[in-house]
Amino acid sequence: MNVQRWIGDLESGWRDRDPAAIAALFTEDAAYHQGPFGSPHVGTEAIAAHWTATLSRQKDPVIWFGAPAVCADRATVEWWCVLHDPATGAPRTAAGCLVLRFADDGRCAEFREYWQSAPESALEPAAGWIR
């Protein structure tokens, strides 16, 4: 399991607007939780559909990741992004944390995402973030 490569592949899929590439990072039965409430997206088809919808609401993402903390098959990593609304061009900043559990083959089996956003802003993260 190479968490840094997995994060790099997630970032590439996000930047390249490629929901299929993002979904390929997950096991066939992966659970993708966006926030603490609601049902997860389960399976690569549902994850690809989620990312298709997500990418339709954003353009020109600039993405940063912190250094991941890894323990056995689990990892956490902070992220930050500045992107724009495709209709209005208005900027939006979002930041959050991913909690990941990996399968033996290096794909993600469980994904939990917690985030906050600052609409109408283009704020860069503090020093030390990876871009």
UniProtKB/TrEMBL annotation:
Pfam families in the cross-refs: SnoaL_2
Domain SnoaL-like: residue ranges: 13-110
Domain of life according to the entry: Bacteria
InterPro entries xrefs: NTF2-like_dom_sf, SnoaL-like
Leader sequence segment: none
Name this polypeptide is given: SnoaL-like domain-containing protein
Native source species: Actinoplanes digitatis
